Amino acid sequence: MEHAGIWSVVPPLVAIVLALLTKEVIFSLLVGIMSGALIHSAIAGLGPLGIFTVTINMMITKLADGDNAAMVIFLALLGGLVAVVTRAGGSNAYGAWASKKIRSRESAGLLTALLGLIIFIDDYFNCLTVGTVMRPVTDRFRISREKLAYLIDATAAPVCIIAPISSWAASVISYYPDSSGMSGMQAFISAIPMNLYAILTIFMVLWIAIRKGSDFGPMAAAQKKTDESGSTVNPASFAANDELEKMNVSPNGKVFDLVIPTALLVILSVLAMLWFGGYWEEEGKTLFEAFGDTEAGPALALGGFGALVAAFFLFVCRRVISFKDFFAGVGIGVKSMVPAIIILTLAWTISGVCRDLLNTGTYVAALVETSSMPVALIPAIMFVAAAALSFATGTSWGTFGILIPITISICDIVAPHLSVISLSSVLAGSVFGDHCSPISDTTILSSTGARCNHIDHVATQIPYAITVAAICFIGYIISGFVAPGGFGITTAITLPVSLGLLIAALLILPKVLKNKVTS
């Protein structure tokens, strides 16, 4: 069927508004899904029961998807790995060691951000690994879970979208039209210097991490609450009173009880990605091509399983914990991931309703394609369009697939000199929308990795993301007008001006935005 017109944007809007108002993300997603099912049933003439059959069938379809099922398995395995490492005392030992080496809250925040920048191959892997490794350290220095979630989220997609060897680069290249004057890889690399949202977000993360008193808005309120309570765990969070928080911990744990399983998780996952990508099977296949052809979900699941098996021999054979305690820990860890799995399943479902049933993306893209816009404003307009579509659907990759071909086609006809800049703006807007959206899988996984209440993460992160996005919008307006001078001149003007505006905002906003601490 064709798109449902203005009705096609109702489900994501319902889910997002309800999530922000009620702070109950599962309820909000369910209502959003069922509103979309109702619209589809009415259009398709499925009758009163259509709303229920459409909802259940879409949910089953999304869970039956190989990559999604593999991600659920990976989350369960990772939860088990985190639990047994914690139970073996590895997290406590690492935290005690780090507290001797890391002398300040700023150093802990900087180390978290740097680790996020290093793990650039896949955003899912980034979100969960950084949270697992750094949470004991940031807890010790009383960095709020909301801020930890932001540090994780802001060094996931923004890093992946400017890393040529990453699953995101492969996605972008696959959507780039073959008829264009350059290859997808050339276009991706050319677009990096003008991907303002990624570059400015990374700068802001480092600034926020190392400067005292740099927080503002709800994030400052969350940090104040943590300082006053002396605890990083929010009582409203699903993680506050679960079994993982109360689990008995072995006093015999060593630092390597955390380092070895984590390192194996990284190494085995990367090797699995190369294996699934056919790196050793096809002669002459490059590393980048293998990452581009890989199946990230199954690879991560295989890496997680291998790390858990290694942890069993590491802990049980040394009698750090008993055989019984090991598998009890696995059970506790899997249960700790259930809220994240439920939210992810519902997010996949609402995304499927919007994309497959109501064609939300087609509707938004049609609005962009048929609008009469001044040529110089194309980058700024495409940034806004990509942000809106990504925010509403909770997916960057889906936005890439819809808007990249449209953008390149428009620029090839009316403004060839804006092709690379407009590509950059689409990538930047897509990441911004994904970064803010409560129904984005990377946002969900960031709150999961930090063990932070999901809506608290969204509410505290949005002002930071909007700050960067507003400056990006100004930057893309500037770039559209100076682009006739060449890409080099455009970058040389736009990037420093945008960076200067961001620094000014980061100096002013903490002084003028003082939010009350809310419960």
Protein described:
- The chain has 519 residues and is an all-alpha fold.
- The chain has a domain at 66-171 and 243-339.
- The chain is built from 26 helices and no strands.
- It has helices spanning 10-22, 25-44, 50-64, 66-87, 90-101, 105-118, 123-140, 145-153, 157-160, 167-175, 184-191, 196-210, 218-229, 243-246, 256-276, 287-293, 296-316, 323-336, 338-357, 360-370, 378-393, 396-414, 419-436, 441-450, 454-482, 487-512.
- Mean pLDDT is 81; it is low at 515-519.
List the helices and strands and how they pair.
Blueprint: H1 10-22, H2 25-44, H3 50-64, H4 66-87, H5 90-101, H6 105-118, H7 123-140, H8 145-153, H9 157-160, H10 167-175, H11 184-191, H12 196-210, H13 218-229, H14 243-246, H15 256-276, H16 287-293, H17 296-316, H18 323-336, H19 338-357, H20 360-370, H21 378-393, H22 396-414, H23 419-436, H24 441-450, H25 454-482, H26 487-512
- Runs in which pLDDT lies below 50 for 5 or more consecutive residues are 515-519
How far apart are the termini?
45 Å
Helix content: over 70%
Oligomeric state of the chains? single chain
Strand fraction equals under 5%
Structural class: mainly alpha
CA-atom Rg in angstroms: 23 Å
How do the SSEs run, as a string of H and E? HHHHHHHHHHHHHHHHHHHHHHHHHH
Number of helices: 26
